Amino acid sequence: SAIHHPPAPLSANETPWTAALSSPGSLRSHTETALEFSAPLSDLTIDLRDLSLETIQMMVDTLVQRVQAIETATGTQIKLEQQHAVEPTLASTPIQETIATVSDALHLSHYSMPSRAIHDAQEIGRFTQMGMIFVPSQAGVSHAEDEYTSPEQCAQGSNVLLHTFLQLDTLLDRPVAQT
Predict the structure, then answer these.
(1) Which residues of the chain have pLDDT under 50?
(2) What's 91's DSSP letter?
(3) Are 112 and 103 in contact (CB under 8 A)?
(4) What is the spatial distance between Cα 79 and Cα 119, in angstroms, rounded to a whole number?
(5) Do residues 53 and 85 touch, judged by C-beta distance below 8 A?
(6) What is the DSSP string of 117-133?
(7) Rounded CA gap, 81 and 137, in Å?
(8) How far apart are CA 163 and CA 105, in angstroms?
(9) Alpha carbons 39 and 72: distance in angstroms, whole number
């Protein structure tokens, strides 16, 4: 079973990357019965994301130090295993600016935010310009069973996407195929 906790506000001595270390992606216990208190084996997945490779490496180093301290303090054997590493991809400034211009023209509020998520757009951004449009979910809940975005906000996001494509079609210099 996965554990979902929305991000908590940062304390005075936390930075976004230290907060990320305390927000695991999922925890699965391997037990014989549901009543067993301490599992003989547990899997904990921690997903570390940032727009900077240096920050990601700093998070990994901090995680390793914390895990070693927990092992020493508790006598627990902990095995760290990297499953994959993905280099961050930044969105295209002209595309981001076009999304903002279209949102303004449609009288929709907006703000720019970095996406640390691993999307198809991240891979596409390695060989062409990309940008992403996010629509708000109720109570800020995302990627969870109780995520909800109203039909009106979905329609607004679709309108932003349509008009962004139309605007980019006139802005971006692209070769015309010869037949």
Answers:
(1) 1-10, 13-27, 29-37
(2) P
(3) no
(4) 28
(5) no
(6) S--HHHHHTTTS-----
(7) 33
(8) 10
(9) 19
